[in-house]
From TrEMBL, chain A:
Taxonomic lineage of the native organism: Bacteria, Bacillati, Bacillota, Bacilli, Bacillales
ABC transporter domain ranges (all copies): 389-623
Biased composition (Basic and acidic residues): 1-12
Organism of origin: Paenibacillus paeoniae
Keywords on record: ATP-binding, Cell membrane, Membrane, Nucleotide-binding, Transmembrane, Transmembrane helix, Transport
One Pfam assignment: ABC_membrane
Protein name per the record: ABC transporter ATP-binding protein
UniProtKB/TrEMBL annotation, chain B:
All copies of domain ABC transmembrane type-1, residue ranges: 16-298
Stretches that traverse the bilayer: 52-77, 130-150, 156-174, 235-258, 278-296
Membrane topology: Multi-pass membrane protein
Alphabetized SUPFAM superfamilies for the sequence: ABC transporter transmembrane region, P-loop containing nucleoside triphosphate hydrolases
A Gene Ontology term for the protein's cellular component: plasma membrane
Domain of life of the organism encoding this protein: Bacteria
Key words, A-Z: ATP-binding, Cell membrane, Membrane, Nucleotide-binding, Transmembrane, Transmembrane helix, Transport
Protein name: ABC transporter ATP-binding protein
SMART domains, sorted: AAA (SM00382)
Residue ranges the record marks as coiled coil: none
Length: 634, 576
């Protein structure tokens, strides 16, 4: 990433006037040597990206105009500067030849230089305007793009988020969009200035001397060959460098996160040995990649200098034959210098554009994902929800052809408790997914108070539920804001009331800023148990009619666990509750037990009926709880 | 930054060579305009064609030498920068491998990873830039000034005015823009944070119907970033045109004053042409140098972070007195009045802990979070060293053991199963490098892992995705138990290792374990009473102190804390 930005920073120098030195070869990547990702559908994606620029066509028009004008004005200047040199030279020659009254015409020179100064100022002003305007356009475009993606994320079904890693989505919204932003900011105008410079310079050179121009143009294919050769080889090394780097990063990540194990099994030396061998390979491909891409500049320089030498020699000869003037040579040298720059830039730009379109494509891919099914036109609203939940012939599978639930029928009355029991990873989240309509059922219906949940708006459906799961989610904000997340309009006294009910008030008040304490990014300034208490407070404040609770409270100390238990009981009173149960008491007292294994509901019933059935649940109970019971009782 | 450059020592001769090469390259570059001046002054003015050809030949020669020299410079510079990266990376990695948990906690695993990878890359890249740019720019600058002085000392006065103006302008713009440059990273991080929160909390956000609220939060962060980015680019928009303008005006001044000098016969027209080119080279080198102001701070932050890692000394080291004498010692684990403090903590994490765990027995440690169970465990393989008292294995203080020998005796099964990329077999073999296939199979069988391994498409050869993401939590835990079993150690440490197993597997595993661990000391840390009830000895920890030792039955009678724990996990009637 940084390599690209660097290159672009240097590349953004406009094909400046003045006999500047050639561009120096620096920057670790060299120009555009990074193997860019190739877009799959260049044209379509390009068009679509261009569509985002459309609202700014007026500004863009101005930017292009400014870019062209700035370049054109700067193109004229070497020729005019040459005129000044001519005046000097002619005056001098006349003096040497002893022409009477011969002198350098300073008045004429002053006039020329004043004209030149004017041109420079105008060119600078336009250059400024071009970049200044573009800053607004480019940043606003990516601003819109980011918002659009984010908004889209809000409409995508959870299926997508479960299937993709967060890192992948993050990288599309941040890195890829950033890549687009850089290109818009710098490369877009660069294309224009490069092309205008190239054309303008060729025209100017032709007006000076077609012969010299021909000589210079002949060096062109040479440059292309060099660029092509070097680019091809360096891409190979860059690719392998990238691969080794990936492997190295992977190794480091694995070894550091597994540090305890590495140490416990005394494998440090082995791990270092492995690291060294990757490090060695990285070194080999890295210096080669750097070197190969680093020589492109000296080689381009060589070609440029060969042109330079020829111009000096041939130009010198032409001057002696009076075909051109000394000023012309000077101007021509300057043009020649400006000539090679846009060529290297274009090679660079082609690469950048490719990677930009590839980035845009990844962003568009996300934008094109299928959204959740549309909300019903006339949604049902439950004015005073009771919390009766019914599953009728529900079929569900994350994969259409592998149904996990084939025909599920349950009826839960308002205020009842459903215990969900089964080994970890048995797919208890599946029920949450279905109830809250994070996933759609494949068949059958789920109703609340007799209404099909598909006929409600998702938002109003979900507001019926309160959820306290084991992996708590809190955000970077104050404790108060986190509790009030369930009901943004809650007054401070209500927040405190909820916290008291959740047994969280005490610990909150021991924090330095009480309810205004900021939770840090990882929310690591409070313990796991405290986090859970906060999420319970959040659910209490939201006052839902149906609850989904996860009883598992591992990594919580016993006292906090007791508090959590009490808080949960308080929360469950009078509400329909689905409890992912671990406590025998909860399970036994439940109105309905759902036994889940490998993602599907295999048994359901009350404690007594399930024991009598002698199935999976009975097995489970006998192997775990019964033993416990006997021992503790004894 | 400079401190890190001590690792360049092996390259010091090569660095001198690179500098010499770049000096030669700059000289070659600067010599061309001089030769061109000669062509104009001598050849063109006098109409001497053969002179022009001869000078042209010289120029060609100089160009080729310049190219060869700069290719060589590039070669050595790449080798130095990459070599430097390799050395630092190797040093950092092996240093980190010697860290105890202490140092890991101090810096943080994620940060250590970034420091070993990205930060070193960043420094390596900047070194590459420095080798080319930082060396090239001053040489071009000095060389240019020398040539300019040599061509016409008085005309150099133009530069005396132009250079400070240019430098001043650069300084002004950079210093104005720098706060914005720095802010941009922060605002990008903020946007990242909001987005990440939105992704990890997606179920909660949707269940509370707060999508709209999250959208606004994102838009705020996004707008903030946009405004800053616009500002940065607007400042940059001033930069280039101003630079170019200063340079161009200088050119005009040179032509004007040079004209007078030519008029008075003090210099030739060719000299003026060459002079303009020198002036440009000097100013461009200044501009290039200014790029370093943007680059170096970025890298120096990285360098500081790397330096911190290297300076941090591992707190657990082998002492000189560690005798290598063969200890046919048994696996008796003894704690004598052990205490332990985390740095900066107000209260000790452990105090006055004394107990012993004998081979052939199961010793369980129970207590809530923060009671010090895991800390106690970590003292045994010396992930930390005790602050007071003594932890002994086989009658010898653990600090007297060489670390690798000590750990040979121990198998640890951590709370969160950690697996490495590689095959199932590789992962089990991690416990014992020379384990036979049969041993691996047996370990897997005992750990109740054989069944699911055999259903995998390639059995023991099946490759795990990074960290075993293609396995369930329980499967990972069973593999990590198999890895511990294959080692056949004297001491087993199970750190709440059965939590991800379902009840049936748990029971089967325990039965199988009993057989193979019959002559080893088994220590189990647990949260749940049901896990520890069968242990020969239960140690109840409460806030870093031992609150009771005994069997389940004994503790139920005389340990208040234990009863409280039992009560919190089982309902009244069950524990009564």
């Amino acid at each position: 990433m940084s390599e690209h930005t660097q290159n672009k920073e240097h590349g953004s120098k406009p094909g400046g006037p003045g006999g500047g030195p050639r561009p120096m070869g620096f920057g670790p990547g060299g120009p555009g040597m990074m193997p860019g990702q190739k877009p799959k559908q260049f044209k379509a994606s390009f068009k679509r990206l261009a569509g985002y620029l459309k609202p700014f066509r007026l500004q863009l028009g101005l930017v292009f105009m400014a870019a062209i004008l700035s370049t054109v004005f700067s193109i004229f200047s070497p020729k005019i500067l040459g005129k000044a040199t001519d005046e000097l030279f002619n005056g001098l020659m006349d003096k040497m030849k002893g022409v009477p009254g011969a002198a350098i015409d300073f008045e004429a020179i002053a006039f020329i230089l004043a004209l030149l100064a004017g041109l420079y100022v105008i060119s600078a002003i336009f250059a400024f305007f071009q970049q200044y305007l573009m800053a607004g356009v480019a940043q606003k475009v990516v601003y819109r793009l980011r918002n659009e993606v984010n908004e889209k994320l809000g409409k995508l079904p959870l299926k997508l988020f479960d299937a993709r890693s967060n890192g992948d989505i993050l990288s599309r919204v941040v890195n890829d969009v950033d890549n687009i932003s850089n290109t818009l900011q710098q490369s877009l105008t660069q294309i224009i200035t490069s092309v205008v410079t190239l054309v303008g310079v060729i025209i100017m050179m032709l007006t000076i001397s077609p012969l010299l121009t021909l000589i210079l143009v002949l060096t062109l294919p040479l440059s292309f060959i060099v660029i092509a050769l070097v680019a091809k080889r360096s891409q190979r090394y860059f690719k392998s460098q990238q691969a080794e780097l990936g492997e190295l990063n992977g190794h480091v990540e694995e070894m550091y996160t597994g540090h305890t194990i590495v140490k416990a099994f005394g494998r440090e030396r082995h791990s270092i040995k492995q690291f060294e061998s990757i490090n060695d390979r990285l070194y080999q491909s890295s210096w080669r990649a750097q070197f190969i891409s680093g020589i492109i500049m000296p080689l381009m320089n060589l070609i440029g200098n060969i042109g330079y030498v020829f111009i000096c020699v041939v130009g010198g000869l032409l001057v002696t034959r009076q075909t051109i003037t000394v000023g012309d040579i000077q101007a021509f040298i300057q043009y020649a210098r400006q000539f090679t720059m846009p060529i290297t830039q274009t090679a660079n730009i082609a690469n950048i554009i490719q990677s930009t379109i590839a980035s845009a494509e990844r962003v568009f891919e996300l934008l094109d994902e299928e959204e959740e099914s549309p909300e019903p036109v006339r949604p049902v609203v439950l004015s005073s929800p009771r919390g009766d939940v019914e599953f009728r012939g529900v079929q569900f599978g994350y994969n259409e052809d592998a149904l996990l639930i084939e025909n599920m029928n349950i009826a839960v009355k308002s205020g009842q408790t459903v215990a969900i029991v089964g080994p970890t990873g048995a797919g208890k989240t599946t029920l949450v997914n279905l109830l809250m309509r994070f996933y759609e059922v494949n068949g059958g219906t789920i109703t609340i108070d007799g209404q099909n949940i598909r006929e409600m708006e998702r938002g109003s459906l979900r507001s019926l539920f309160g959820m306290v799961l084991q992996d708590t989610w809190l955000f970077n904000g104050t404790i108060k804001d986190n509790i009030a997340y369930g009901r943004a309009s809650a007054a401070e006294s209500e927040v405190i009331e909820a916290a008291i009910a959740a047994h969280a008030d005490h610990f909150i008040r021991t924090m330095p800023d009480g309810y205004d304490t900021m939770l840090n990014e990882e929310a690591s300034n409070i313990s796991q148990g405290q986090k859970q208490l906060l999420t319970i407070a959040r659910a209490i404040l939201a006052d839902p009619s149906i609850l989904i609770l996860d009883e598992a409270t591992s990594s919580v100390d016993t006292r906090t666990e007791l508090q959590i238990q009490q808080a949960m009981q308080h929360l469950m009173a009078g509400r329909t509750s689905f409890v992912i149960a671990h406590r025998l008491s909860t399970i036994r007292d439940a109105d309905l037990i759902l036994v889940m294994d490998k993602g599907s509901v295999i048994e359901q019933g009350t404690h007594e009926s399930l024991l009598a059935a002698g199935g999976f649940y009975a097995d489970l109970y006998n192997s775990q709880f019964a033993a416990t019971n006997k021992l503790t009782a004894g | 930054m400079l401190k890190l450059f001590r690792f360049l020592r092996p390259y010091r001769i090569v660095i001198v060579l690179v500098m010499a090469l770049i000096l030669m390259q700059s000289l070659a570059e600067l010599y061309l305009p001089t030769l061109m001046a000669d062509i104009v002054n001598e050849g063109v003015v006098k109409g001497d064609t053969s002179y022009i050809w001869r000078m042209g030949g010289y120029m060609m020669g100089v160009t080729i030498i310049g190219t060869v020299v700069s290719v060589l410079a590039s070669l050595y510079a790449s080798r130095i920068a990459s070599g430097f990266g390799r050395i630092v990376r190797g040093k950092v990695f092996s240093h980190v491998e010697s860290f105890s948990m202490h140092e890991f906690d101090k810096i943080g695993t994620a940060s250590l990873i970034t420091r070993t990878t990205n930060d070193i890359n960043q420094v390596q890249q900047v070194l590459m830039m420095m080798l080319r740019l930082m060396v090239m720019a001053p040489m071009m600058c000095i060389g240019g000034i020398i040539m300019a002085l040599y061509k016409d000392a008085e005309l150099t006065l133009v530069l005396v005015v132009a250079l400070p103006v240019l430098a001043g302008a650069i300084w002004l713009i950079v210093s104005k823009g720098l706060p914005y440059f720095k802010a941009i990273q922060k605002k990008l991080d903020r946007l990242n944070l909001v987005l990440r929160e939105g992704l990890t909390g997606i179920r909660v956000i949707r269940s509370f119907n707060r999508i709209e609220h999250e959208k606004v939060r994102f838009e705020d962060a996004n707008r903030d970033l946009m405004n800053n980015a616009i500002k940065v680019n607007q400042i940059m928009a001033v930069m280039m045109p101003v630079m170019m303008l200063i340079m161009n005006i200088s050119t005009i001044a040179i032509v004007w004053f040079g004209g007078w000098r030519i008029d008075s016969g003090a210099m030739g027209v060719g000299d003026l042409m060459a002079f303009i080119q020198y002036a440009m080279q000097i100013m461009f080198s200044l501009l290039m140098f200014s790029m370093m102001f943007v680059m170096v701070p970025r890298a120096s932050a990285s360098a500081v972070r790397i330096g911190e890692v290297l300076e941090l000394q591992p707190s657990v080291t082998d002492t000189a007195e560690t005798a290598l004498s063969s200890r046919g010692s048994s696996g008796v684990v003894e704690f004598h009045n052990v205490s332990f403090n985390y740095p900066g903590a107000e209260r000790p994490a452990l105090s006055d802990i004394s107990f012993s765990a004998l081979p052939g027995e199961v010793t369980a440690i129970i207590g809530g979070t923060g009671s010090g169970k895991s800390t106690l465990f970590h003292l045994i393989p010396r992930f930390f060293d005790a602050a007071g008292g003594s932890v002994q294995i086989g009658g010898t203080d653990v600090t007297k053991w060489p670390q690798d020998q000590l750990r040979q005796y121990i198998s640890l099964v951590p709370q969160k199963a950690v697996l490495f990329s590689g095959s199932v077999q590789d992962n089990i073999r991690y416990g014992k490098e020379d384990a036979t296939d049969e041993e691996i199979r047996q370990a897997a069988e005992t750990a109740q892992a054989l069944e699911f391994i055999e259903t995998m498409p390639e059995g023991f050869q099946s490759v795990l995705a990074q960290g075993g993401t293609n396995l369930s939590g329980g499967q990972k835990q069973r593999l990590s138990i198999a890895r511990a079993l294959v080692r056949k150690p004297r001491i087993y440490l199970f750190d709440d290792s059965f939590s991800a197993l379902d009840y049936k597997t748990d029971a089967k595993l325990r039965a199988a374990l009993k057989e193979v661990t019959s002559d080893a000391a088994v220590l189990i840390v647990a949260q749940r009473v049901s896990t520890v009830m069968d242990a020969d000895r239960i140690i109840v920890l409460d806030e870093g102190r031992i609150a009771g030792v005994g069997t389940h039955r004994e503790l139920m009678e005389d340990s208040e804390v234990y009863r409280e724990i039992v009560a919190s996990q089982l309902s009244e009637e069950e524990s009564a």
